[in-house]
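Summary for the funding panel

The consortium committed to producing paired sequence-structure records for every protein in the target list. Below we show the first two records in order, beginning with the earlier of the two.
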Amino acid sequence: MSGGIPVRCPRCRTEHLYAPHVYPCTCGAPVSPPLQRGAQPTLLTYVTWEDDWVTVRCESCGRLDQWPQPELGCDCGALLRVPVKPASAGPAPGHAPLPLHIPLAPTAPAPRPAFHPVTIRTARDAVQAAALYLRWLGYKEIRRTEQRAASGVGLVAPGLRAQVEPTTRSMSLRDVECLWLAALNDSSVPVCFSLAGYTDDARARADSLAVPLFVLDLTGTPQPVNSPADELISTGA
């Protein structure tokens, strides 16, 4: 597990002490990206969704998975990407690879580790928090939609279509209906995430269409606001 390392901003030369976020592996062990001590951070001027993720190996079970790239916002306004040691191929030294799935007794509940949120400071943080939560629910290969949504940010995964509204605008009836129709077209589960909540008619329509609604608090933890959301949490993907 990586501890904090000094990171100097290449723009203003201010030095920060940075420690990466910790995430839960499928096996339940905490995982954090291994930082490259002494390496110079990258000053970001343009970012893409694909570049926001890094491959990290769990030290407990050897599993490789994708987690958000470590980034740091400097007081001068610069966004810095902190270098990460590349994950080696094959099982981690001293670890035999674990099976991806261990069958449970029919009556045993599916184990799920605690969700570790990412503090929301920017719109990008809100989208990452939603993506991490969907991954925690069991959805894989989450990516942004290729076509820009009319409002908010679209996320898709096999069997899923989600809409994230990372601004102070409440999601509307039209937002819910458009997402539901898009999900219906490709036989996916529609899910909404919003920082500012939903209008009354949007919530009523979501209940009638069984669309799960979540509100993102600033800690990065999605909170269910209707029964379909509670059911999704119980069943997962």
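The next record, for a separate protein in the list, is shown here:
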Amino acid sequence: MRVVIAEDSVLLREGVQRLLADEGIETVAAVENGDDLLDAVTEHRPDLCVVDVRMPPSFTDEGLRASIEARRRFPGLPVLVLSQYVEERYAVELLAGGASGVGYLLKERVADVKEFVDAVRRVADGGTSIDHEVITQLMVRSKKSPVDSLTPREREVLGLMAQGLSNTAIAGALVVSDGAVEKHVGNIFAKLGLEPSNSEHRRVRAVLTYLDS
């Protein structure tokens, strides 16, 4: 796997690069601002970008804007965003395109090497990895959504899907059978109006509907 890292903190940038190297993941470019990120993506066409939301010069949303532009130029480009805080608007905007291969984690998750590497590989493979703190805050949004029709258990299952868990992992987390989870997932697809298609693609679409609810 070939990765581009965009992070203005030298310590975090080099730390992430070394962590990935220990897992056999190559960093082809490590930059500190959005413009350099776009240049690096154009030059290297990486398998994944790991991007800080706030970078120079204004330290507001440069990383996010650069990520959205990179995905516009190269549709399907996997992007894993790292942020110091839960910033709902940024998370929703990044996910609004409906494409797969997106993640949003708090920087503190990098300390859990296994969790972080799992998220890196999952997003690079076209899945999603959304921090549970982001999910919690998005759940309190008041906008009406098809998600409102889900039962509490179905919302719980969908929340775990948003974190990137498989059906088996969800069953383990909820201490229920795989069959029970499959039934809940089927109900979720039906209530969200997701017609039968590629299973993994429907999971991503369900998660995106949930996060924009």
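Regarding this second record: The radius of gyration is 17 Å. The mean pLDDT is 84.
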